[in-house]
Design a protein that fits this description.
The complex is a heterodimer of chains A (317) and B (246).
Chain A: E1 2-6, E2 9-10, E3 13-14, H1 16-26, E4 32-37, H2 42-46, E5 55-59, H3 67-80, E6 83-89, H4 92-104, E7 108-113, E8 124-129, E9 134-140, E10 145-149, E11 164-168, E12 177-184, E13 198-202, H5 213-222, E14 225-228, H6 230-234, E15 255-259, H7 265-271, E16 276-281, E17 294-297, H8 300-316
Parallel strand pairs in A: 1-4, 1-6, 4-5, 5-11, 6-10, 7-10, 13-14, 13-15, 15-16, 16-17
Antiparallel strand pairs in A: 2-3, 8-9
Helix pairs in contact in A: 3-4, 5-8
Chain B: E1 2-6, E2 9-11, E3 19-20, E4 25-26, E5 33-35, H1 37-54, E6 57-63, H2 69-78, E7 82-86, H3 93-106, E8 111-115, H4 126-134, E9 138-148, E10 151-158, E11 161-168, E12 171-175, H5 187-193, E13 198-201, E14 210-216, E15 225-226, H6 233-241
Parallel strand pairs in B: 1-6, 1-8, 6-7, 7-13, 8-12, 9-12
Antiparallel strand pairs in B: 2-5, 3-4, 9-10, 10-11
The chains are: A alpha/beta (317), B alpha/beta (246).
Chain lengths: 317, 246
């Protein structure tokens, strides 16, 4: 059973979420072929062996390609390799490309998988549904199966090796869209919210945008991304791309620190995949404490500076 | 400009999630259903704004039985001109996208909009599948959309940034936060919705390639461990030495 993984090229590097997808495919116990594209060094491609890749198909000569073109590339690679399983990372690119690829391969698809396929009876894949409030097991009934893996949701296994790299090309057709501009929304050096392992988030309890300095300082000291609750984004205290929750972005970091956020069910839906949740709120009845691993009932303006000092001390030690 | 907006029926965001029939079916008992927020707040409202600015029509489409009608009427109350219901149970995303693509191919639309995902199945699949079925360009997770003549300018979220794209209609676009603001239907809209056309269309022959065989609920969280605010530094110690996370 051959497994093909699509790896995204972001500015000459393979994204972390794609490496997780390669490791996930490796854990299926079959040979893993990766398909990627664009300008990237041969060394970085053969180093994908350290994630579990045996072979890398490299489509050169293209850089910015849109989802429909990438889906043609992946579908052609899947046919060339007779792949029965095609794996994506369930990140921005994967969400764009995987469903189109499934149509092209006449494949059933599970997006946002959180575990390896169960092949003891049929082919079943587990994913979170109802915005993290439940799980569902999907049976895939097609010959070819497409799976997109939810980032930060499986344990990775150690593997070392060097993947062979082959040139690959497919007819990608013409682009229907022209890229006019790309703007970064992440401050220089800071982690991307959706990929961050640590996140410091704050809400209305901070009383005003001028009080975010301590949130940013704590985040910077921890190497964390910053996030916020919906009301805070809606009134413009923080940019929309920081809004986590049911209608913003969903994240699943290793640590989520919520400061002055009550924990409405819609907010929890965006963060309930976090491994450890810390809640700091002066209201002991805040619903967020029910979802928290650690909590401090106290005034953020007193607690957060103490945390900043403690992290500084830790880093100095 | 004629815009098709795909809407899905979803349980209210505060609904209690539980299952019946040996954990194979979502328990709809006592559950209030709404228009999936991404479909309503972002896709539908932006479609209405574009129509108000440049003329044309907004048609909503959903795949479902008559039980979907109240949700369809709500979308009409917000301002859509007409509705289409493909009369079949929405078995999986591929089936739903296939039905909508078949309808859209037989009719003509300049834009096909949907939400970036539903809040119940969180698939992010239908928009891309419609685009692939119709061989149209696709922009996922768009946060801004403007149309001048036949040229659409779309901004979308990408890893750590925003990408601005331009293309000619027809296009398929999935919509995320930023696109528009929620609209509350007024009494006039609700009254008008009762008489707006709702066309019921027979489904085409499309296979469902996936099936949910069982649901379960996540394990209960253990009790929160509280740290004394006077001794807040202890939290950092716990995260370091107990949770081993920093």
């Amino acid at each position: 059973m051959a497994v093909l993984v699509f790896a995204d090229n972001t500015n000459g590097s393979i994204a972390k979420s794609s490496k997780e997808a390669i490791n996930y495919a490796h854990q299926m116990g079959q040979g893993v072929t990766v398909v990627t594209y664009g300008e990237i060094s041969q060394d970085k491609l053969s180093a994908l062996g350290n994630s579990g890749a045996n072979k890398v198909l490299h489509h050169t000569g293209v850089n910015r390609v849109e989802p429909s073109q990438l889906s043609k590339m992946v579908a052609e690679a899947a046919k060339a390799e007779s792949a029965e399983i095609v794996v994506f990372a369930h990140d921005y690119t994967g969400k764009s490309v995987a469903p189109l690829t499934a149509v092209r391969l006449n494949a059933g698809i599970v997006s946002g998988a959180v575990a390896l396929p169960d092949t003891s009876s049929g082919f079943r894949v587990r994913k979170a549904v109802f915005s993290g409030k439940a799980f569902a097991n999907y049976e895939l009934k097609s010959d070819v199966k497409v799976i997109s893996l939810l980032p930060n949701s499986i344990d990775l296994v150690e593997v070392s090796g060097s993947a062979s790299v082959e040139n690959f090309s497919a007819d990608l057709g013409s682009a229907g869209l022209v890229q006019k501009e790309v703007r970064g929304t992440v401050s220089e050096g800071g982690p991307v919210l959706t990929e961050a392992e640590l996140v410091v988030s704050a809400g209305r309890g901070l009383k005003g945008p001028e009080n975010w300095g301590m949130v940013e300082e704590l985040a910077e000291l921890l190497g964390a991304a910053t996030a916020c609750s919906r009301p805070v984004a809606d009134v413009g205290w923080r940019p929309h791309h920081e809004h986590v929750g049911q209608t913003g972005v969903a994240i699943r970091p290793n640590l989520y620190i919520a400061i002055g956020i009550s924990g409405a069910i819609q907010h929890l839906a965006g963060v309930n995949g976090s491994k450890v949740i810390v809640v700091i709120n002066k209201d002991p009845e805040a619903p967020f404490f029910k979802a928290a691993d650690y909590g401090i009932v106290g005034d953020a303006f007193e607690v957060v500076p103490k945390l900043i000092e403690a992290v500084k001390k830790l880093k100095a030690a | 400009m004629d815009i098709l907006v795909c809407i899905s029926k979803a349980p209210d965001t505060t609904a209690k999630i539980q299952f019946t029939d040996g954990n194979t079916k979502f328990d709809e008992n006592g559950v209030q259903f709404i228009v999936n927020p991404y479909d309503e707040w972002y896709a539908l409202v932006r479609a209405l704004e574009l129509k108000e600015a440049g003329g044309g029509s907004v048609c909503i489409i959903t795949v479902g039985g008559p039980e979907a009608d109240p949700v369809i009427r709500k979308a009409l109350a917000i301002g859509a001109d007409k509705a289409v219901r493909i009369d079949a149970q929405p078995t999986d995303a591929g089936f739903v996208a296939g039905q909508i693509a078949d309808y859209a191919k037989a009719n003509s639309f300049d834009l096909i909009l949907c939400g970036k995902e539903t809040i119940n199945y969180n698939g992010s699949q239908v928009g891309g599948m419609i685009a692939a079925e119709m061989d149209l360009p696709y922009v996922s997770q768009a946060i801004k959309l403007d149309v001048a003549g036949a040229t659409a300018t779309v901004e979308r979220d990408i890893q750590g940034g925003v990408e601005v794209l331009e293309g000619n209609t027809p296009l398929v676009i999935s919509c995320a936060k930023g696109m528009a603001e929620q609209r509350i239907p007024n009494m006039r809209g609700i009254m008008a919705a009762r008489t707006k056309p709702l066309e019921v269309v027979a489904p085409t022959d499309r296979p469902a390639l996936t099936e949910v065989v069982g649901y379960d609920l996540p394990p209960q969280k253990t009790e929160v461990k509280l740290v004394d605010p006077e001794n807040a530094e202890e939290l950092i110690n716990l995260l370091r030495n107990e949770a081993k996370i920093i």
